[in-house]
Amino acid sequence: MVHQIDPSFVALPLRALADAALARARALGAEHADFRLERVRSASWRLRDAKPSGSSDTTDLGYAVRVVHGGAWGFASGVDLSMDGAARVASQAVAMAKLSAKVIAAAGSSERVELAAEPVHEDKVWVSSYEVDPFSVPSEEKSALLADWSARLLRAEGVAHVDASLLTIHENKFYADTAGTVTTQQRVRLHPQLTAVAVDGTTGEFDSMRTIAPPVGRGWEYLTGTGWDWDRELDEIPALLAEKMRAPSVEAGRYDLVVDPSNLWLTIHESIGHATELDRALGCEAAYAGTSFATFDQLDKLAYGSSVMNVTGDRTAEHGLATIGYDDEGVEAQSWNLVKDGTLVGYQLDRRIAKLTGLGRSNAAPSRTPRARAGAADGERLAPAGPGRPVDGGPDRGRGRGIYVVGDRSWSIDMQRYNFQFTGQRFFRIENGRLAGQLRDVAYQATTTDFWGSMEQVGGPQTYVLGGAFNCGKAQPGQVAAVSTAAPPPSSGASTSSTRRRRPVDDRSPPDLPGARGRPPGKHSLNTTQEAGR
After folding, report:
1. What is the C-alpha to C-alpha distance for residues 420 and 273, in angstroms, rounded to an integer?
2. Could you tell me the pTM of the whole model?
3. Burial (CB count within 10 angstroms: exposed 0-12, middle 13-18, buried 19+), residue 365
4. Residue 470, Cβ neighbours under 10 Å: how many?
5. What's the rounded Cα separation, in Å, for the pair 271 and 258?
6. CA–CA separation, 513 vs 530, rounded Å?
7. Taking the chain, what is the end-to-end CA distance rounded to the nearest angstrom?
8. Contact (CB, 8 A) for 423 and 415
9. Residues 449-471: tens digit of each pLDDT
10. Which class for 253: exposed (0-12), middle (13-18), buried (19 or more C-beta within 10 A)?
Protein backbone atom coordinates (compact mmCIF):
# COMPACT_ATOMS: atom_id res chain seq x y z
CA MET A 1 0.00 0.00 0.00
CA VAL A 2 1.33 3.41 -1.00
CA HIS A 3 0.82 6.08 1.66
CA GLN A 4 0.90 9.84 1.35
CA ILE A 5 2.97 12.11 3.55
CA ASP A 6 0.96 13.04 6.65
CA PRO A 7 -1.06 16.17 5.67
CA SER A 8 -0.45 17.77 9.08
CA PHE A 9 3.30 17.64 8.42
CA VAL A 10 3.04 19.01 4.89
CA ALA A 11 0.91 21.85 6.27
CA LEU A 12 3.88 23.13 8.28
CA PRO A 13 5.76 26.07 6.68
CA LEU A 14 8.54 23.76 5.50
CA ARG A 15 9.61 25.57 2.34
CA ALA A 16 9.30 29.02 3.84
CA LEU A 17 11.46 28.11 6.84
CA ALA A 18 14.07 26.47 4.61
CA ASP A 19 14.13 29.41 2.23
CA ALA A 20 14.62 31.86 5.09
CA ALA A 21 17.44 29.84 6.64
CA LEU A 22 19.28 29.09 3.40
CA ALA A 23 18.97 32.67 2.14
CA ARG A 24 20.49 34.00 5.35
CA ALA A 25 23.34 31.46 5.18
CA ARG A 26 24.09 32.45 1.57
CA ALA A 27 24.01 36.15 2.43
CA LEU A 28 26.55 35.53 5.21
CA GLY A 29 28.93 33.81 2.81
CA ALA A 30 28.34 30.12 3.51
CA GLU A 31 29.84 27.80 0.90
CA HIS A 32 27.17 25.20 1.70
CA ALA A 33 24.08 25.14 3.87
CA ASP A 34 21.35 22.61 4.53
CA PHE A 35 18.11 22.76 6.49
CA ARG A 36 16.34 19.79 8.05
CA LEU A 37 13.03 19.79 9.92
CA GLU A 38 11.88 16.63 11.67
CA ARG A 39 8.78 15.53 13.51
CA VAL A 40 9.04 12.22 15.36
CA ARG A 41 6.17 10.66 17.26
CA SER A 42 7.09 7.82 19.64
CA ALA A 43 4.62 5.75 21.63
CA SER A 44 5.17 2.74 23.88
CA TRP A 45 3.10 0.32 25.91
CA ARG A 46 4.40 -1.96 28.69
CA LEU A 47 2.63 -4.78 30.52
CA ARG A 48 3.67 -6.94 33.45
CA ASP A 49 1.81 -10.24 33.84
CA ALA A 50 -0.88 -9.07 31.39
CA LYS A 51 -1.53 -5.87 33.33
CA PRO A 52 -0.53 -2.36 32.18
CA SER A 53 2.68 -1.12 33.80
CA GLY A 54 3.30 2.02 31.78
CA SER A 55 2.82 3.86 28.52
CA SER A 56 3.99 7.01 26.77
CA ASP A 57 3.16 9.05 23.69
CA THR A 58 5.45 11.95 22.79
CA THR A 59 6.14 14.08 19.74
CA ASP A 60 9.43 15.90 19.08
CA LEU A 61 9.57 18.65 16.47
CA GLY A 62 12.47 20.90 15.56
CA TYR A 63 14.85 21.93 12.83
CA ALA A 64 18.57 22.26 12.31
CA VAL A 65 20.78 24.32 10.03
CA ARG A 66 24.22 23.11 9.05
CA VAL A 67 26.72 25.26 7.14
CA VAL A 68 30.22 25.19 5.76
CA HIS A 69 31.71 28.68 6.14
CA GLY A 70 35.38 29.51 5.78
CA GLY A 71 36.12 25.82 5.41
CA ALA A 72 34.63 24.92 8.82
CA TRP A 73 31.40 23.35 10.04
CA GLY A 74 28.76 25.35 11.86
CA PHE A 75 25.58 23.99 13.43
CA ALA A 76 22.52 25.40 15.15
CA SER A 77 18.96 24.27 15.84
CA GLY A 78 15.62 25.75 16.81
CA VAL A 79 11.91 25.23 17.37
CA ASP A 80 10.60 28.70 16.46
CA LEU A 81 8.52 28.09 13.33
CA SER A 82 8.80 31.64 12.05
CA MET A 83 10.86 32.99 9.16
CA ASP A 84 12.78 35.26 11.52
CA GLY A 85 13.46 32.29 13.81
CA ALA A 86 14.83 30.17 10.96
CA ALA A 87 17.05 33.03 9.72
CA ARG A 88 18.33 33.56 13.25
CA VAL A 89 19.29 29.89 13.56
CA ALA A 90 21.18 30.14 10.26
CA SER A 91 23.08 33.16 11.61
CA GLN A 92 23.97 31.16 14.72
CA ALA A 93 25.27 28.31 12.56
CA VAL A 94 27.50 30.69 10.60
CA ALA A 95 28.78 32.26 13.82
CA MET A 96 29.63 28.78 15.10
CA ALA A 97 31.52 28.03 11.87
CA LYS A 98 33.55 31.22 12.21
CA LEU A 99 34.44 30.30 15.78
CA SER A 100 35.39 26.78 14.71
CA ALA A 101 37.64 28.18 11.97
CA LYS A 102 39.50 30.27 14.54
CA VAL A 103 39.98 27.29 16.83
CA ILE A 104 41.21 25.13 13.95
CA ALA A 105 43.66 27.83 12.82
CA ALA A 106 44.90 28.30 16.38
CA ALA A 107 45.62 24.59 16.53
CA GLY A 108 47.86 24.95 13.49
CA SER A 109 45.64 23.02 11.10
CA SER A 110 44.92 24.06 7.53
CA GLU A 111 42.31 21.38 6.86
CA ARG A 112 39.13 22.64 5.20
CA VAL A 113 35.73 20.97 5.02
CA GLU A 114 34.81 20.06 1.46
CA LEU A 115 31.88 17.88 0.40
CA ALA A 116 31.77 15.24 -2.31
CA ALA A 117 29.48 16.04 -5.21
CA GLU A 118 25.93 14.69 -5.23
CA PRO A 119 23.31 15.01 -7.97
CA VAL A 120 20.52 17.48 -7.19
CA HIS A 121 17.27 15.76 -6.15
CA GLU A 122 14.43 18.21 -6.69
CA ASP A 123 11.11 17.80 -4.87
CA LYS A 124 11.54 14.11 -4.07
CA VAL A 125 9.01 12.31 -1.86
CA TRP A 126 9.67 8.94 -0.23
CA VAL A 127 7.50 6.86 2.13
CA SER A 128 8.56 3.59 3.76
CA SER A 129 6.77 0.32 3.00
CA TYR A 130 3.92 -0.44 5.41
CA GLU A 131 0.20 -1.22 5.30
CA VAL A 132 -1.36 0.14 8.50
CA ASP A 133 0.04 3.14 10.37
CA PRO A 134 0.29 1.87 13.98
CA PHE A 135 -0.88 5.28 15.19
CA SER A 136 -4.19 4.74 13.42
CA VAL A 137 -4.88 1.77 15.73
CA PRO A 138 -6.51 2.70 19.07
CA SER A 139 -4.26 2.39 22.12
CA GLU A 140 -6.83 0.09 23.73
CA GLU A 141 -6.43 -2.36 20.87
CA LYS A 142 -2.65 -2.38 21.23
CA SER A 143 -2.82 -2.99 24.98
CA ALA A 144 -5.49 -5.66 24.52
CA LEU A 145 -3.33 -7.61 22.06
CA LEU A 146 -0.30 -7.50 24.36
CA ALA A 147 -2.48 -8.57 27.29
CA ASP A 148 -3.90 -11.48 25.30
CA TRP A 149 -0.45 -12.66 24.28
CA SER A 150 0.79 -12.34 27.87
CA ALA A 151 -2.18 -14.30 29.19
CA ARG A 152 -1.52 -17.10 26.71
CA LEU A 153 2.02 -17.45 28.03
CA LEU A 154 0.95 -17.20 31.67
CA ARG A 155 -1.52 -20.06 31.21
CA ALA A 156 1.33 -22.38 30.20
CA GLU A 157 2.82 -24.62 32.88
CA GLY A 158 6.09 -23.32 34.25
CA VAL A 159 5.69 -19.67 33.19
CA ALA A 160 5.72 -17.49 36.30
CA HIS A 161 5.86 -13.99 34.83
CA VAL A 162 5.57 -12.28 31.47
CA ASP A 163 6.81 -8.86 30.39
CA ALA A 164 5.40 -7.39 27.18
CA SER A 165 6.20 -4.18 25.35
CA LEU A 166 5.55 -2.39 22.08
CA LEU A 167 7.40 0.64 20.73
CA THR A 168 6.07 2.46 17.65
CA ILE A 169 7.62 5.34 15.70
CA HIS A 170 6.21 7.65 13.01
CA GLU A 171 8.89 9.91 11.57
CA ASN A 172 8.58 12.79 9.09
CA LYS A 173 11.58 14.65 7.67
CA PHE A 174 11.97 17.61 5.32
CA TYR A 175 15.37 18.50 3.87
CA ALA A 176 16.60 21.32 1.61
CA ASP A 177 20.06 22.59 0.72
CA THR A 178 21.70 25.39 -1.22
CA ALA A 179 22.42 23.07 -4.18
CA GLY A 180 18.69 22.70 -4.84
CA THR A 181 17.90 19.30 -3.33
CA VAL A 182 14.52 19.15 -1.59
CA THR A 183 13.18 15.91 -0.07
CA THR A 184 10.19 15.00 2.09
CA GLN A 185 10.07 11.58 3.73
CA GLN A 186 8.00 9.46 6.08
CA ARG A 187 9.01 6.31 7.96
CA VAL A 188 7.08 3.94 10.22
CA ARG A 189 8.67 1.30 12.42
CA LEU A 190 7.78 -0.78 15.47
CA HIS A 191 9.19 -3.30 17.92
CA PRO A 192 6.99 -5.80 19.83
CA GLN A 193 8.67 -7.98 22.47
CA LEU A 194 7.60 -10.53 25.08
CA THR A 195 9.71 -12.22 27.75
CA ALA A 196 8.56 -15.27 29.73
CA VAL A 197 10.18 -16.01 33.10
CA ALA A 198 10.32 -19.39 34.87
CA VAL A 199 11.14 -19.82 38.58
CA ASP A 200 12.07 -23.04 40.33
CA GLY A 201 10.10 -22.90 43.57
CA THR A 202 12.45 -25.32 45.30
CA THR A 203 15.82 -23.81 44.46
CA GLY A 204 14.79 -20.25 43.63
CA GLU A 205 16.65 -20.53 40.34
CA PHE A 206 15.11 -18.63 37.43
CA ASP A 207 15.64 -18.01 33.74
CA SER A 208 13.87 -16.29 30.85
CA MET A 209 13.02 -16.74 27.20
CA ARG A 210 12.37 -13.76 24.92
CA THR A 211 10.70 -13.61 21.54
CA ILE A 212 13.16 -13.38 18.67
CA ALA A 213 10.87 -11.44 16.33
CA PRO A 214 12.97 -8.49 15.12
CA PRO A 215 11.96 -4.82 15.11
CA VAL A 216 10.84 -3.88 11.61
CA GLY A 217 10.02 -1.06 9.25
CA ARG A 218 6.43 -2.24 8.95
CA GLY A 219 3.08 -1.13 10.32
CA TRP A 220 0.44 -2.70 12.58
CA GLU A 221 0.09 -5.60 10.12
CA TYR A 222 3.30 -7.03 11.63
CA LEU A 223 1.43 -7.85 14.83
CA THR A 224 -1.43 -9.51 12.96
CA GLY A 225 0.72 -11.99 11.05
CA THR A 226 2.41 -10.18 8.15
CA GLY A 227 6.13 -10.87 8.29
CA TRP A 228 6.11 -13.00 11.45
CA ASP A 229 4.22 -16.01 12.82
CA TRP A 230 3.42 -14.79 16.32
CA ASP A 231 1.09 -17.68 17.15
CA ARG A 232 3.82 -20.20 16.45
CA GLU A 233 6.45 -18.34 18.46
CA LEU A 234 4.17 -17.84 21.47
CA ASP A 235 3.16 -21.50 21.39
CA GLU A 236 6.82 -22.62 21.34
CA ILE A 237 8.20 -20.43 24.13
CA PRO A 238 6.83 -22.29 27.21
CA ALA A 239 8.27 -25.65 26.15
CA LEU A 240 11.57 -24.06 25.14
CA LEU A 241 11.80 -22.26 28.46
CA ALA A 242 11.01 -25.44 30.40
CA GLU A 243 13.73 -27.28 28.51
CA LYS A 244 16.15 -24.42 29.14
CA MET A 245 15.52 -24.66 32.89
CA ARG A 246 16.47 -28.35 32.81
CA ALA A 247 19.34 -27.99 30.35
CA PRO A 248 22.90 -28.83 31.41
CA SER A 249 25.53 -26.14 31.63
CA VAL A 250 27.84 -25.99 28.64
CA GLU A 251 30.93 -28.18 28.75
CA ALA A 252 34.19 -26.42 27.96
CA GLY A 253 35.69 -27.42 24.63
CA ARG A 254 35.93 -26.69 20.92
CA TYR A 255 32.83 -26.78 18.77
CA ASP A 256 31.40 -25.87 15.43
CA LEU A 257 28.96 -22.95 15.64
CA VAL A 258 25.82 -22.36 13.63
CA VAL A 259 24.54 -18.86 14.39
CA ASP A 260 20.91 -18.01 13.74
CA PRO A 261 20.17 -14.58 12.17
CA SER A 262 18.36 -13.61 15.39
CA ASN A 263 21.78 -13.65 17.07
CA LEU A 264 24.12 -13.00 14.17
CA TRP A 265 22.61 -9.62 13.28
CA LEU A 266 24.21 -8.10 16.37
CA THR A 267 27.59 -9.74 15.74
CA ILE A 268 27.57 -8.32 12.21
CA HIS A 269 26.53 -4.90 13.44
CA GLU A 270 29.19 -4.68 16.13
CA SER A 271 32.14 -6.38 14.41
CA ILE A 272 31.50 -5.20 10.83
CA GLY A 273 29.03 -2.31 10.91
CA HIS A 274 30.85 -0.07 13.37
CA ALA A 275 34.27 -1.26 12.24
CA THR A 276 33.64 -0.15 8.66
CA GLU A 277 32.58 3.41 9.51
CA LEU A 278 35.34 5.30 7.76
CA ASP A 279 35.28 8.27 10.12
CA ARG A 280 35.93 5.81 12.93
CA ALA A 281 38.68 4.02 10.99
CA LEU A 282 40.33 7.42 10.47
CA GLY A 283 40.30 8.09 14.22
CA CYS A 284 37.39 10.53 14.48
CA GLU A 285 35.59 8.46 17.14
CA ALA A 286 38.62 7.77 19.31
CA ALA A 287 37.59 10.05 22.18
CA TYR A 288 34.16 8.50 22.60
CA ALA A 289 33.57 5.12 20.98
CA GLY A 290 37.05 4.10 19.90
CA THR A 291 38.61 3.50 16.52
CA SER A 292 38.67 0.47 14.21
CA PHE A 293 41.14 -2.30 13.45
CA ALA A 294 39.98 -2.05 9.80
CA THR A 295 42.14 1.00 9.06
CA PHE A 296 42.02 2.86 5.75
CA ASP A 297 45.41 1.55 4.60
CA GLN A 298 43.92 -1.98 4.61
CA LEU A 299 41.23 -1.25 2.01
CA ASP A 300 41.28 -3.97 -0.66
CA LYS A 301 43.91 -5.84 1.40
CA LEU A 302 42.50 -6.94 4.76
CA ALA A 303 41.35 -10.56 4.97
CA TYR A 304 38.20 -9.83 6.97
CA GLY A 305 36.90 -13.36 6.71
CA SER A 306 36.79 -16.53 4.65
CA SER A 307 36.13 -16.60 0.91
CA VAL A 308 32.39 -17.26 1.44
CA MET A 309 31.99 -13.96 3.31
CA ASN A 310 30.22 -11.17 1.41
CA VAL A 311 28.79 -8.19 3.28
CA THR A 312 26.77 -5.37 1.74
CA GLY A 313 25.91 -1.95 3.08
CA ASP A 314 22.30 -1.38 2.08
CA ARG A 315 19.89 1.46 2.85
CA THR A 316 17.31 0.31 0.30
CA ALA A 317 16.08 -3.04 1.73
CA GLU A 318 12.30 -3.13 2.09
CA HIS A 319 11.13 -2.91 5.73
CA GLY A 320 14.61 -2.11 7.03
CA LEU A 321 14.86 0.16 10.06
CA ALA A 322 17.68 2.06 8.35
CA THR A 323 15.98 2.14 4.97
CA ILE A 324 15.47 5.62 3.54
CA GLY A 325 15.02 7.42 0.26
CA TYR A 326 17.61 10.15 0.93
CA ASP A 327 19.99 10.67 3.83
CA ASP A 328 20.56 13.70 6.06
CA GLU A 329 22.95 15.20 3.50
CA GLY A 330 20.60 14.88 0.53
CA VAL A 331 22.33 11.74 -0.78
CA GLU A 332 20.16 9.11 -2.43
CA ALA A 333 20.07 5.72 -0.66
CA GLN A 334 22.34 3.08 -2.15
CA SER A 335 23.67 -0.46 -1.80
CA TRP A 336 27.43 -1.12 -1.86
CA ASN A 337 29.99 -3.77 -0.96
CA LEU A 338 31.82 -3.71 2.37
CA VAL A 339 33.40 -7.17 2.21
CA LYS A 340 33.75 -9.15 -1.00
CA ASP A 341 34.93 -12.78 -1.02
CA GLY A 342 36.38 -12.22 2.45
CA THR A 343 38.31 -9.01 1.64
CA LEU A 344 37.56 -5.51 2.94
CA VAL A 345 36.51 -3.52 -0.14
CA GLY A 346 34.42 -0.63 1.18
CA TYR A 347 33.41 1.62 4.05
CA GLN A 348 30.44 3.64 5.20
CA LEU A 349 31.13 7.26 4.46
CA ASP A 350 29.45 10.66 4.31
CA ARG A 351 30.09 13.50 1.85
CA ARG A 352 32.99 15.06 3.76
CA ILE A 353 34.81 11.77 4.35
CA ALA A 354 34.20 10.74 0.73
CA LYS A 355 35.86 13.93 -0.49
CA LEU A 356 38.66 13.79 2.08
CA THR A 357 39.69 10.26 1.16
CA GLY A 358 39.16 10.54 -2.58
CA LEU A 359 36.54 7.79 -2.63
CA GLY A 360 34.12 9.83 -4.71
CA ARG A 361 30.43 9.89 -3.87
CA SER A 362 29.01 9.39 -0.38
CA ASN A 363 27.11 6.12 -0.02
CA ALA A 364 24.41 7.61 2.24
CA ALA A 365 25.88 6.17 5.42
CA PRO A 366 25.18 9.14 7.69
CA SER A 367 27.87 11.43 9.01
CA ARG A 368 28.76 11.57 12.69
CA THR A 369 29.24 15.33 12.61
CA PRO A 370 27.00 16.85 15.29
CA ARG A 371 23.45 17.33 14.11
CA ALA A 372 20.09 16.33 15.42
CA ARG A 373 19.20 12.66 15.02
CA ALA A 374 22.05 11.77 12.69
CA GLY A 375 22.13 8.10 11.78
CA ALA A 376 24.42 5.37 13.01
CA ALA A 377 25.98 2.42 11.22
CA ASP A 378 23.15 1.41 8.94
CA GLY A 379 22.04 -1.45 6.78
CA GLU A 380 24.82 -4.01 7.01
CA ARG A 381 23.85 -7.41 5.67
CA LEU A 382 25.63 -10.69 5.18
CA ALA A 383 24.68 -11.81 1.68
CA PRO A 384 22.82 -15.12 1.34
CA ALA A 385 24.44 -17.87 -0.63
CA GLY A 386 23.83 -17.80 -4.36
CA PRO A 387 24.84 -19.85 -7.39
CA GLY A 388 28.28 -21.38 -6.99
CA ARG A 389 28.48 -20.64 -3.27
CA PRO A 390 28.00 -23.07 -0.35
CA VAL A 391 24.49 -23.44 1.00
CA ASP A 392 23.63 -24.84 4.42
CA GLY A 393 20.07 -26.11 4.57
CA GLY A 394 19.61 -25.41 8.26
CA PRO A 395 21.13 -25.54 11.74
CA ASP A 396 21.13 -29.33 11.90
CA ARG A 397 22.72 -30.05 8.53
CA GLY A 398 26.35 -30.81 7.84
CA ARG A 399 27.68 -30.12 11.35
CA GLY A 400 29.55 -32.49 13.60
CA ARG A 401 29.86 -31.57 17.29
CA GLY A 402 28.66 -28.04 17.74
CA ILE A 403 26.30 -25.43 19.14
CA TYR A 404 23.38 -23.68 17.46
CA VAL A 405 22.90 -20.11 18.76
CA VAL A 406 19.47 -18.42 18.72
CA GLY A 407 18.43 -14.92 19.82
CA ASP A 408 20.56 -12.05 21.11
CA ARG A 409 21.19 -11.18 24.72
CA SER A 410 24.33 -9.54 26.16
CA TRP A 411 27.44 -8.51 24.26
CA SER A 412 30.82 -6.88 24.74
CA ILE A 413 33.37 -5.61 22.22
CA ASP A 414 36.57 -3.63 22.52
CA MET A 415 37.28 -0.09 21.34
CA GLN A 416 38.71 -1.27 18.00
CA ARG A 417 35.87 -3.69 17.24
CA TYR A 418 38.27 -6.61 17.34
CA ASN A 419 37.83 -8.70 20.53
CA PHE A 420 34.25 -9.58 21.41
CA GLN A 421 31.91 -11.79 23.41
CA PHE A 422 28.22 -12.56 22.75
CA THR A 423 25.57 -14.56 24.53
CA GLY A 424 22.10 -15.57 23.30
CA GLN A 425 18.53 -16.50 24.20
CA ARG A 426 18.98 -20.21 23.70
CA PHE A 427 21.68 -22.66 22.66
CA PHE A 428 21.28 -26.17 21.26
CA ARG A 429 23.83 -28.97 21.13
CA ILE A 430 24.60 -30.32 17.66
CA GLU A 431 25.62 -33.96 17.65
CA ASN A 432 26.26 -35.91 14.45
CA GLY A 433 24.67 -33.14 12.45
CA ARG A 434 21.40 -33.01 14.41
CA LEU A 435 20.02 -30.84 17.20
CA ALA A 436 20.29 -32.68 20.52
CA GLY A 437 18.75 -30.52 23.24
CA GLN A 438 19.51 -27.20 24.86
CA LEU A 439 22.54 -25.94 26.79
CA ARG A 440 22.77 -23.12 29.32
CA ASP A 441 25.32 -20.50 30.30
CA VAL A 442 26.94 -20.21 26.87
CA ALA A 443 28.84 -17.26 25.42
CA TYR A 444 31.02 -17.26 22.33
CA GLN A 445 34.18 -15.20 22.20
CA ALA A 446 36.52 -14.36 19.33
CA THR A 447 38.49 -11.77 17.44
CA THR A 448 36.65 -10.36 14.44
CA THR A 449 38.95 -11.78 11.77
CA ASP A 450 39.19 -15.21 13.43
CA PHE A 451 35.40 -15.38 13.76
CA TRP A 452 34.68 -14.52 10.13
CA GLY A 453 37.77 -16.33 8.88
CA SER A 454 36.43 -19.63 10.21
CA MET A 455 33.08 -19.32 8.39
CA GLU A 456 32.54 -22.32 6.11
CA GLN A 457 28.95 -22.17 4.91
CA VAL A 458 26.18 -19.59 4.52
CA GLY A 459 22.45 -20.20 4.45
CA GLY A 460 20.44 -19.66 1.29
CA PRO A 461 17.81 -16.98 0.60
CA GLN A 462 15.11 -19.02 2.37
CA THR A 463 16.99 -18.57 5.66
CA TYR A 464 17.54 -14.82 5.30
CA VAL A 465 16.16 -12.63 8.13
CA LEU A 466 16.30 -8.84 8.52
CA GLY A 467 17.13 -7.88 12.12
CA GLY A 468 18.11 -4.66 13.84
CA ALA A 469 17.65 -2.29 16.75
CA PHE A 470 16.08 1.07 17.53
CA ASN A 471 18.92 2.33 19.68
CA CYS A 472 22.37 2.31 18.10
CA GLY A 473 24.36 5.05 19.81
CA LYS A 474 27.33 6.95 18.46
CA ALA A 475 29.08 10.31 18.07
CA GLN A 476 29.56 13.46 20.14
CA PRO A 477 27.13 14.81 21.18
CA GLY A 478 25.51 11.40 21.61
CA GLN A 479 23.09 10.38 18.89
CA VAL A 480 20.77 7.38 18.57
CA ALA A 481 19.44 5.83 15.39
CA ALA A 482 17.50 2.78 14.23
CA VAL A 483 19.71 0.28 12.40
CA SER A 484 19.11 -2.76 10.23
CA THR A 485 21.27 -5.86 9.91
CA ALA A 486 20.28 -8.94 7.95
CA ALA A 487 21.79 -12.38 7.56
CA PRO A 488 21.26 -16.03 6.75
CA PRO A 489 22.74 -18.43 9.32
CA PRO A 490 26.43 -19.18 8.71
CA SER A 491 28.24 -22.19 10.08
CA SER A 492 31.90 -22.65 10.86
CA GLY A 493 34.43 -24.92 12.42
CA ALA A 494 35.96 -22.96 15.27
CA SER A 495 37.75 -23.36 18.55
CA THR A 496 35.91 -22.92 21.84
CA SER A 497 37.06 -22.86 25.42
CA SER A 498 35.74 -21.93 28.81
CA THR A 499 36.52 -19.75 31.78
CA ARG A 500 34.47 -22.21 33.78
CA ARG A 501 37.32 -23.12 36.11
CA ARG A 502 39.59 -20.21 35.21
CA ARG A 503 41.73 -22.63 33.27
CA PRO A 504 43.92 -21.79 30.26
CA VAL A 505 42.42 -21.85 26.78
CA ASP A 506 42.43 -25.37 25.37
CA ASP A 507 43.34 -25.16 21.68
CA ARG A 508 42.95 -28.87 21.01
CA SER A 509 40.14 -29.94 18.69
CA PRO A 510 37.66 -32.48 20.08
CA PRO A 511 38.10 -35.85 18.39
CA ASP A 512 34.64 -35.78 16.78
CA LEU A 513 34.96 -32.32 15.13
CA PRO A 514 35.80 -33.27 11.52
CA GLY A 515 38.49 -31.21 9.87
CA ALA A 516 38.95 -28.80 12.76
CA ARG A 517 42.68 -29.32 13.16
CA GLY A 518 44.79 -26.71 11.44
CA ARG A 519 42.10 -24.04 11.33
CA PRO A 520 42.88 -20.60 12.74
CA PRO A 521 41.55 -19.92 16.24
CA GLY A 522 37.89 -18.94 16.06
CA LYS A 523 35.10 -18.60 18.59
CA HIS A 524 35.54 -19.44 22.24
CA SER A 525 32.47 -20.65 24.18
CA LEU A 526 32.35 -19.51 27.79
CA ASN A 527 30.34 -20.81 30.71
CA THR A 528 28.69 -17.61 31.92
CA THR A 529 27.49 -19.05 35.21
CA GLN A 530 30.94 -20.17 36.27
CA GLU A 531 32.47 -17.00 34.86
CA ALA A 532 30.25 -14.37 36.45
CA GLY A 533 27.42 -15.98 38.35
CA ARG A 534 23.83 -16.42 37.25
Report:
1. 14
2. 0.88
3. buried
4. 16
5. 17
6. 25
7. 47
8. no
9. 999 999 988 888 888 899 999 98
10. middle
